[in-house]
Amino acid sequence: MEYKNGKLQLPMITLCAMTSVLVDETVKAMEYSMRGIDFGDAVIITDKKPRKLPEGIRYAHIDELDGIDRFNYETVYNMGDYINTDFALLVHYDGFVVNPESWRDEFLDYDYIGSPWPLPPEGDETTYRDINGNICRVGNSVSIRSKKLMDVPNDVGIPWTPEKGWFNEDGFICCRNRHIFEAEGCRFAPLELAIYFGHENMIPEIEGKEIKPFVFHKWAGTNAGYPDFRKKHPLRKRLARIKGKAWNMVHKDKD
């Protein structure tokens, strides 16, 4: 762990996000993630250059992601094309770095680390499982992935197939095709370390431990206090003002 001018130095990691929706909010999430950290690079991958792109975040063009399936496909097969460092930290508007002081160098001992998944419901024999039926506890889209792992789908020609009719890029990598990635030498972080990396679901393994995760994903449970940049969306502010004026007009005559 190295610091310079009071900031954690992570030159081997590119902070990245890929989206065609809530782009401004995503950029704010990236900017927030850079508090206290110098990443090797930072890139927003989207179809239109954001109007006010902060210094230190570069824009990379991609055709419009016109649905979640397109996002999942591009994340699996093409995100690596935009990464020039050994690792990428993928963040979203609803999942990003919140506790830079919780960084652990061991996170980079693996090719994939994300927030832990809960155990699948009783009787569910497919969710969070690999092809042999083993339960996979660590995945999640908000994650650190090695460039080595990002190159595997194209290098070995993994077919694009859904699970239960859905395409989920994290499940595609960490569950259904995990055996292929492992055969190529990729390592997935264990649950015991992942609980310190990130939180999404409030699983028993984190209850009562007062862990401050490096990242979070979604505002459930103890994540509820983390920033939500959607509240500052200009359209929502405008709608709120219009709604407020309408309320005043309706109630004016009653005063």
Secondary-structure blueprint:
Blueprint: E1 3-4, E2 7-18, H1 23-33, E3 37-46, E4 58-61, H2 68-77, E5 87-90, E6 112-116, E7 138-146, H3 147-156, H4 169-176, H5 178-183, H6 191-197, E8 198-199, E9 215-216, H7 234-252
Parallel strand pairs: 2-3, 2-5, 3-4, 8-9
Antiparallel strand pairs: 1-2, 5-7, 6-7
Helix pairs in contact: 2-4
Textual characterization of the structure:
The structure is a single chain. The protein is an alpha/beta fold. Helices cover 28% and strands 20% of the residues. The chain is globular and about 50 Å long. The termini are far apart.
Q: What name is given to the CATH topology? A: Spore Coat Polysaccharide Biosynthesis Protein SpsA, Chain A
Largest β-sheet summary? 7 strands, mixed
Note the run of SSEs as H and E: EEHEEHEEEHHHHEEH
**What general outline do the C-alpha atoms trace?**
globular
**Multimeric state:** single chain
The helix count comes to 7
- What is the correct CATH architecture? Alpha-Beta Complex
Strand content: 15-25%
Distance linking N and C termini: 63 Å
How many domain modules?
1
Using DSSP, what is the number of strands? 9
Classification by helices and strands:
alpha/beta
CATH class: Alpha Beta
Which stretches of 5+ consecutive residues score pLDDT under 50?
A: 243-255
Helix content: 25-40%
